[in-house]
## 1
Amino acid sequence: DTGVSQDPRHKITKRGQNVTFRCDPISEHNRLYWYRQTLGQGPEFLTYFQNEAQLEKSRLLSDRFSAERPKGSFSTLEIQRTEQGDSAMYLCASSFQPTEAFFGQGTRLTVV
Amino acid sequence: QKEVEQNSGPLSVPEGAIASLNCTYSDRVSQSFFWYRQYSGKSPELIMSIYSNGDKEDGRFTAQLNKASQYVSLLIRDSQPSDSATYLCAVTTGNTPLVFGKGTRLSVIA
């Protein structure tokens, strides 16, 4: 399978715990995006990388969120001290330059 | 604030009919436009991209773009129950990440 891969698919965590998600993009894609989606809403932009450089972060992204893309390959998104409002689907997408972006299956986070 | 507006629906059409989905955007320098299909509980799937004014056809799907009116639409011909999903419109200037609308829920009635 050469598509975008995300792990885990589902995560249930207690409020206050830290969680980390991983995304493996399509191999030849240099751009990697993180989005968050809640029920009834479109995907909301969080941050994106071009190769290993983090080019933009949403102003909505609190300091509890951090993302990395070491060596321009896979990326991780960490949420520290999770809150119930962080419950959402976290989507990763990749593209080659600013062309069509393809999404992974997403990680569904539930904070209890 | 860059915005992409879609009618949330639901849009109900009978099987075999044409479904018409609409989207407007606020950023005049937008260059690239995409339609994604999203089934309930799944991630968005790219179905169409369009970059220049006019129509682009791919099978039963036709995307239409009018940059002067800041309007993009998706037509689905011969709608099937399997087309029932939420359709997301996404827009970018090319140097910015995709901005998504909230999506239009389509229901095709057999």
Note: DSSP finds no helices and eleven strands in chain B.
## 2
Amino acid sequence: DAKTTQPTSMDCAEGRAANLPCNHSTISGNEYVYWYRQIHSQGPQYIIHGLKNNETNEMASLIITEDRKSSTLILPHATLRDTAVYYCIVRNAGGTSYGKLTFGQGTILTVHP
Amino acid sequence: DGGITQSPKYLFRKEGQNVTLSCEQNLNHDAMYWYRQDPGQGLRLIYYSQIVNDFQKGDIAEGYSVSREKKESFPLTVTSAQKNPTAFYLCASSPGTSGRSSYNEQFFGPGTRLTVL
């Protein structure tokens, strides 16, 4: 699986958009980009995933560059409850070990009043 | 409500004792997973199961054992052979359609924090 690089931490003011970057320069053609987040002492929560087109759901938007070597997770109006560790994961959809996700250290997002 | 339950939330055991962590899901998911998380670290995969009566070792399976006798249950036993068992243990499940991107949409339980004294 392709390796991802994320900033260790980021801050965001409440009500503003939080833009979390992720580099995945070695991503291959059949690998998707997944985002999860983990609020302190809870299990991770799936946010969104995409292959090459931009995606949006009720939680966030995912912008993937045309060369697919990087992506940005956007929380359009961050709230204090969005304070969490955000994980960017690159994974293919199938294969013999499908479903096996590798969580790195992620980005600690702190939303402040 | 549909979801994944793990019990208990906190568990204390003496060194040298085996302990079994419970994980149950009513999402009708084929695949289930066990992860371990240490303070300030990401998750590491212990074992996973794609279907009933089948499971595979993850990255750190030594000192752990699992069973998958029922689709909805995937208990994890932390044996005395596990050298550093104190950690936060997370169970997850995902849909079972191979090759679909949704297979990687894993749903996590609330976790069990195990402390070995």
Note: Residues 37 and 43 of chain B are 5 Å apart (CA to CA).
## 3
Amino acid sequence: DSGVTQTPKHLITATGQRVTLRCSPRSGDLSVYWYQQSLDQGLQFLIQYYNGEERAKGNILERFSAQQFPDLHSELNLSSLELGDSALYFCASSGLAGGGANVLTFGAGSRLTVL
Amino acid sequence: DQQVKQNSPSLSVQEGRISILNCDYTNSMFDYFLWYKKYPAEGPTFLISISSIKDKNEDGRFTVFLNKSAKHLSLHIVPSQPGDSAVYFCAASATGGYNKLIFGAGTRLAVHP
């Protein structure tokens, strides 16, 4: 158990629908990151939050949005779902505030299947 | 624009031999490099890192080498064990980029008895 909790583990939905993925970071970590892994591809950075504020954005679609709440958990909202959104979505957390290697701790992922 | 590239999708090695996984990067602003290991149905787990001011970092059977002039790093596993069979991701970060990690596509390592 990495300490990063993601729910749900699996989700099957239809095109056009909206889903919400939830992440609880490791205790004490202020930063939350969301990554997408499509079939046989690397992890694509979507977005980062630090203590409730958006810090960095990657190639996140406009149909996707995220937020980090005061209790530091985060949600990734995916709307108007398309077949190509089927992927593993990973949340990671870290406590890094300054320099040094940013070792992210990953959750087990949420597998989204869009039919 | 792939800033971190792992050009070998897969690698097969015999148990006890050395496994060498390679990674190339394009962004000269990267100052930390990390390797992650991923088993099926699990999230990636951190393996080893190296700062750009070093050219080698060792942790048990795992050694990472960095060649800044070539923008290349490699992970050596000696000796390889069947339990090392997993997907290995190379990742990089730049201190000015809020430390987000940019990942390569991964290399699937299979270690055969």
Note: Chain A has a mean pLDDT of 92.
## 4
Amino acid sequence: KNEVEQSPQNLTAQEGEFITINCSYSVGISALHWLQQHPGGGIVSLFMLSSGKKKHGRLIATINIQEKHSSLHITASHPRDSAVYICAPRENGGSQGNLIFGKGTKLSVKP
Amino acid sequence: GAGVSQSPSNKVTEKGKDVELRCDPISGHTALYWYRQSLGQGLEFLIYFQGNSAPDKSGLPSDRFSAERTGGSVSTLTIQRTQQEDSAVYLCASSFDKKTQYFGPGTRLLVL
């Protein structure tokens, strides 16, 4: 059983569209990371959340601990946002490093 | 400034050989993480170092895998008697606040 489910698995959007990527998890967590993996393989940490909402530029991440759900939103999407977005919760009781990873959502933004 | 670096960037080895993968974290980052990403799979946690504390090795898949971090800086991940299923991209990340992780470019390992 996959403890972290992301949806959709693949997403194609037109430039300017509002994007939502969802992450549901089945375990109790202390925090959740959103990562961005570029086509060349490089990974960038976007957010770490333990509650509420965070915003950075055009990116917004929200989390509902009770519902075990997090969302990543991209406003005014751009082709450079094309990447794989990975949800990575940190399980309660786990060490700081022991994240469990979703399989990722592959986003392609067309000009 | 310099980010996390890893070497080699690519490694091809024969089944049964030992390999060493190196990670140079960002200077001053006390936390260091190793992950791997197998082809078509998600990321998988391997091991976590924090300062001088005992590392969290709970993600290492077998006793053929080991890692050390010398002087709280450079880390080496060693895989003994490599198997074909060890083929993956091995990623290292470091952090100073245990919140934002800075990832290296990865080492692509191919075991023939």
Note: DSSP finds no helices and ten strands in chain A.
